Amino acid sequence: MITRIISLFLFVLTCLPALAQNGNYVLVFQDNFDGTSLDTTIWSKIPRGRSDWNRHMSPNPSLYSVDNGMLKLYARLNNGIVANDRSTYITGGVWSKGKKAIRYGKVEVKAKFRCAQGTWPAIWMLPENAKWPYGGEIDIMEHLNYESCIYQTIHSNYTYYLGQKTDPQSHAKVSIQLEQYNVYGVEIHPERIDFFVNGQCTFSYPRIEDKASEGQFPFGEEPFYLLIDMQVGGNWVGNPNPQDYPSWMDVEWVKMYELSE
What we know:
The protein has helices spanning 2-20, 157-160, and strands at 25-31, 44-45, 64-66, 71-77, 89-91, 93-95, 101-102, 105-113, 122-127, 137-142, 149-155, 171-175, 182-189, 192-197, 200-206, 224-229, 247-259. It is mainly β. It has one domain: Sandwich (Jelly Rolls), CATH 2.60.120.200. The N and C termini lie far apart (43 Å).
């Protein structure tokens, strides 16, 4: 009982800044996916790369659906779907790179996903120009396999190359109801980053002034854009089971706000 009380007290202390709701927000965009295609003033399809997260990305239309107020992103076994593509799996993902981004503000995404062994759906943010990890990375939501939790994480030179992941705490593991939609959110402030699930603060990552030279808090130095994608396989999530596919993520809406002065 004492341990539970202490844990609750520490959680409240961590999230007190978030509960204060400092600042006012101005809506940058809201996409309810009411049409039948991606809004190209907001989104582009993510191109393929060499990292675990993007090595199966494809622009193939079978991986994207906008219909009846829903964006659906798929991960599929590539059984001849893309004839000239040697990738065993193909995945869909969108980003707002070069179109919509914020330095300070708030992002919320309402989504759910169909689980599969080896799937790794993610909602996250990257800086427009800075080299990784020096410019930082904000993982609003990552899900692995059939787990009943999601991960929210900060990456930077400080956490990655210097290995400082607990001073301060740079990540949280949060239980969710897999069968229902959840709202995943983040607020980026000059002095901290607050993470949320369904409006509840999960943890807060503070700026520490005497560690600034080590790249502890690069956030706010340039705008961050949003990525929403399906990912398959890799060192973290493990090998996929082909019998589990296709898999997908449903996105009901996305909102991005700027923090006003």
